[in-house]
Amino acid sequence: MISVEVAYALADKQKIVQMQVEEGTTAREAALRSGLTADFEDLDLAQSPLGIFGKGIARPEEHVLANGERVEIYRPLLADPKEVRKQRAARAAQAKAEAAE
Fold first, then answer.
1. Which residue of 11, 65, 68, 81 sits 20 to 30 Å from the alpha carbon of 88, by its own alpha carbon?
2. Phi-psi region of 15 (alpha: psi -120 to 50; beta: other; left: phi over 0)
3. Segment holding 25, helix H or strand E
4. Other CB atoms closer than 10 Å to residue 7's CB: what's the count?
5. Which CATH number fits domain 2-76: 3.90.1150.10, 1.10.10.60, 3.30.450.70, 3.10.20.30?
6. Could you tell me if 50 and 60 are in contact, meaning their C-beta atoms sit under 8 angstroms apart?
7. CB-count exposure of residue 55 (10 Å: 0-12, 13-18, 19+)
8. E strand intervals along the chain
9. Is 66 exposed, middle or buried (0-12, 13-18, 19+ CB in 10 A)?
């Protein structure tokens, strides 16, 4: 058996579950066994993107966990980060141009 954590957070609520799992358990399996859907009803553990300590996992069904790892369940992005940066830069340029007038 190995010790792992599974974490999920919303803006106003978060939870970390410490678990003992068999060696060979994958990140997806640990997420599914975590029981977090009892606290977060809209959470779809079968489809949610997962990561380990802030680094996304391309294939969580294949990533075998090591002792002490924390599986993080990610929420879907509401906005494309690249688009948000472009909009922020455009607003800053416009504000700078207006200040120069």
1. 11
2. beta
3. none
4. 17
5. 3.10.20.30
6. yes
7. exposed
8. 2-9, 14-21, 50-52, 55-56, 70-73
9. exposed
Dihedral sign (CA 45, 51, 52, 54): negative
Question: What pTM value is reported for the model?
Answer: 0.73
- For 6-65, write each residue's pLDDT tens digit: 999 988 899 999 999 999 999 999 999 999 999 998 888 988 999 999 899 999 999 999
The sign of the dihedral angle between the CA atoms of 8, 27, 75, 36 is negative
Domain ranges, ordered by start, for the chain: 2-76
Query: Residue 70 burial by CB count (10 A; 0-12/13-18/19+): exposed, middle or buried?
Result: middle
Quote the pLDDT of residue 50.
95
CB atoms within 10 A of CB 15: 16
